[in-house]
């Protein structure tokens, strides 16, 4: 994405995660912050009060500009940035961005070729359009907490900000598809990504199931994913994750282990799928008979997917990740930062972490001077 200019008026995680990946892949991302900064600067541990770990990760490689958009000078400076941008992306609700004077219609009048991306909780085309949203509320509304209850017996959130991150990736691909269209036609356009719509689509990939058909052929859930016995297996000395799923793997496992409970009713994937919770329960008893390492060795020999249970902290010392060069250490004014790097690989245009996350307003003077606004830098930021 080298040469692509992005004006980033996003905050928290969804939007910044999208633009972080753009920066990793070469885009010039100008992060526009209010005088108090993006709130994510303050929500987790970091080397300074304005450099929390979450912020540092999803804002690496960007340039920070402070603009007070409550002032005419701040708005004027933003207009100058937007008029020369390839992408303008924001996470404000539709009425709020329109009230500010930066709706798609206003922006496109000044920069017809721009890709203008709205990223917020709910599509403005529906009745919930201006409803506030965060990851937890979207997890609840999209059915994620409900399937967790089916799986564990208690409604719960998953242990990661899934809605923010999945929506952020959706914002990324939607924006890049619009850039692809522009490269072919020269035509800019408006893009809208709602967290709710994104997560509804995400959840219904497998959980729509029989409910998609007319008349419905079943309820809206995927039985294997919510089977009560679908969990890591306990071993003699710990736990292991393993999936003995297709017919080849099942045959190899049965031949090697010879569980007494196996019968002809489990011979095919279709048969096992119809009684998947029972199968998982029987497997759970068998896995108690050997140690974790014994199972890892055996399943590895058989080519059956299996893995030990790791913590996020253990990933930093993971042999495979370190062999691939996954982590990148970047110098910052607070010392070296070991970032989880770019997970994709390109033979001709590899990504890299362009630099550390910026200090609040670190590049205000630099950017405004670059855009011919050196004389208004102080007014725009205050």
TrEMBL record:
Entry keywords, A to Z: Transferase
Family annotation (PANTHER family): BLL6097 PROTEIN, SUCCINATE--HYDROXYMETHYLGLUTARATE COA-TRANSFERASE
Classification via InterPro entries: CoA-transferase_III_domain (IPR050483), CoA-Trfase_fam_III (IPR003673), CoA-Trfase_III_dom3_sf (IPR044855), CoA-Trfase_III_dom_1_sf (IPR023606)
Organism the protein comes from: Solimonas fluminis
Pfam name, any one: CoA_transf_3
Signal peptide range: none
Keyword Phosphoprotein: no
Descriptive protein name: CoA transferase
GO-annotated molecular function: CoA-transferase activity
